[in-house]
Amino acid sequence: MTVTALGLPSVLKPAARGAAGEAPREGPLIDTFGRVATDLRVSLTDRCNLRCTYCMPAEGLDWLPDDRLLSPEELTRLLRVAVTRLGITNVRFTGGEPLLARDLEHIVAATAALVPRPEIALTTNGLGLKHRAEALAAAGLDRVNVSLDTVDAARFAAITRRDRLADVLAGLRSAQRAGLGPVKVNAVLDPDTGREDVVALLRYCVEHGYQLRVIEQMPLDAGHQWRRGQALSAEDILTALSHHFDLTPDPRPRGSAPAQLWQVDGGPASVGVIASVSQAFCAACDRTRLTADGQVRNCLFATTETDLRSLLRDGADDAALEAAWRSAMWSKAAGHGINDPGFVQPERPMSAIGG
After folding, report:
1. Nearest 5 degrees, angle CA 284-CA 339-CA 96?
2. How far is Cα 329 from Cα 125, in angstroms, rounded to an integer?
3. CB atoms inside a 10 Å sphere around CB 317
4. CB contact at 8 A, 150 and 40
5. Distance of CA 206 to CAs 71, 166, 201, 203, 260, Å?
6. Which has fewest Cβ within 10 Å: 115, 293, 304, 306?
7. Residue 134: CB atoms within 10 Å
């Protein structure tokens, strides 16, 4: 197999209207480079019941106090602004671990009731999904991504610091039975065991009808211990898989999807590789992010945020919330800058931003 470049062009030129001036007051949620955000990632909580080594210290983190978190009513209002005024068509709930969030089914149902109805997805570690999948599907959830880095029980316990692999696998089965498909598996590989883990993961996913997405480890750990060259790259991942599978590029257009897809042994099964570090796809980014405490982030790696929670609690109307959100996205940088000499890792770890 020949490994080809995975990324879309990451060098952007400003749109015709240029970087100067204010954000448009209506129309799509656009930035100065002409990218339109239609995909909203919503972190419902910074809490998590795993302690993955690449994300969180063993003793955990100081959680956000409850009074700083958006209430379900505040969140529902912001979701309505995003969908009805800003053109958001896809909403994905994340964490921390979103199954730990209060009123999750209520929030999903309120989102499904919006007109026009967005597609609704959930990214979860799968703990507890066995008991929630049916209720979430009934509330309006369309599909689910489950984080799983290995199907080896001992390695799972070492990575997550919890012996809960059986619960995650049960959650995957329940999601599939509930119709939350296509069920996707998100994997971040351990630098030492990942070449073996990814082969077993792909075999497991093909056998059970799940779609594997392998994500390059990114500098979003709480301890800021990420070092370039230690994590496995997309090329490493594809090379490891090519020794066991026949991988051919998926002929379908990639669009703004973060994963480059490869057909496995002629299809229909596929595997995706998200090369956020080695082959940045910032030029096609269509995402905006809302944290659990009501901050808009225009990039996963942004070092600034726009505070919608304070606006809400100070009595701002929907037009003011819309304008603040538009301004936040208008100032989005051309790229995340991970490969720039002056890159600065965000203060918030992934668990407090949302994937």
Report:
1. 70
2. 29
3. 9
4. no
5. 40, 18, 9, 5, 17
6. 115
7. 15
88-91 contacts at long range (C-beta below 8 A, 24 or more positions apart): 88/29, 88/37, 88/38, 88/39, 88/40, 88/118, 88/288, 89/38, 89/39, 89/116, 89/118, 89/119, 90/38, 90/39, 90/40, 90/118, 90/119, 90/121, 91/40, 91/42, 91/118, 91/119, 91/120, 91/121
Question: Is residue 153 helix, strand or coil?
Answer: helix
Query: If you search the block for the tokens 């210290």, which residue do you land on?
Result: 57
What local confidence, expressed as pLDDT, does residue 12 receive?
53
Give this prediction's pTM: 0.90
Mean pLDDT of residues grouped by 10 in the chain (355 residues)?
35 47 94 96 94 84 89 98 98 96 95 98 97 98 98 97 97 98 96 96 98 83 55 92 96 84 95 85 91 93 92 98 98 76 65 69
User: Interhelix angle for 104-112 vs 129-139, to 10°?
Assistant: 30
Q: Which amino acid makes up residue 255?
A: G
Residue 352 is encoded by which pair of tokens?
């407090």
Question: Could you confirm whether domain 39-353 is CATH 3.20.20.70?
Answer: yes
d(CA 193, CA 155): 8
Q: How far apart are CA 297 and CA 299, in angstroms?
A: 5
